[in-house]
Specification:
By secondary structure, this protein is α/β, with parallel strands linked by helices. It contains nine helices and 14 strands. The longest helix is centred in the middle third of the chain and has 8 residues. Bound molecules: D-malate (MLT), manganese (II) ion and zinc ion.
Length: 298
Amino acid sequence: MAFRARVLGAAAGGGLPQWNCGCENCRLARAGEIPSLTQSSLAVSGDGQSWAVLNASPDIRAQIAASPCLHPTDLRKTPLASVLLTNGDIDHVAGLLSLREQQPFTLFATGEIHEVIAANPIFNALAADRVARVTVEIGHEFEIVSGLHATLFPVPGKVPLYMEGAEVQTDLEGEQTVGVELRTNGRRIFYIPGCAAVTDRLAERIGGADLVFFDGTLWRDDEMQRTGVGTKTGKRMGHISMSGPEGSIAALAALGIGEKVFVHMNNTNPVLRPSSPERAAAEEAGWRVAQDGMEISL
Ligand code: MLT
Ligand code: MN
Ligand code: ZN
């Protein structure tokens, strides 16, 4: 038994290129000069046979088609055993609608994230007698897929964009935004695709891990303003930046983590250009920038 992970989609919401975006990265991706990326999702397995998909992106149909490990093994038999949601954002839940073809699997999420799904009747397309919606308590270990144990923990974040009220708390720690700790064969792997800040508690938790997939939305907090695509800061979106004294590169530098991989990159992020100084700086600091189809085995 060995741990395997496959990045199904390395981009944040919108993907690369994003349909309505003419920024430098999106233009380069359309021209085939840098790799295009689909939206945020990671497949994991403890035995290479059955798989859990962490977040169901709007691109899941194409992601499965591009991933031999997830192809059907018989007439209506699929290696996909479960789906886990780490928040209720559209880039992480809309793909559930593409999994509606009368296929049994287990849908894991916290109580609050299940409430968001339950409040949207379109998700009733996932027939209740086929798709078991299992509520996972924070801090309680469960078997997410054969041989692979998972524990959810709160990370600073916010409610989904489409649920925002007049006032938004962007460093909420509860059931709306969670990270996933995976254990198998004495290995500890973390998946944290959305995170507003690295608190002491979070740093302590992920310290010494074998592998961490981490929120790589933006290089710098004012990146959307600087590229002219929007007015929101990373902080307002509930995403820590890679660079700077309070960024993720600095925060994870001394935690003794085996492998560090950025996922959930926004299409404005300069690390998506392989020749950029920002990519060189991230790699120099010991990080890899995920690509669609990247696989890691432990
Ligand atoms: C995010 O990660 O901030 C969200 O996916 C944004 C969105 O829903 O578009
Ligand atoms: Mn997102
Ligand atoms: Zn763009």
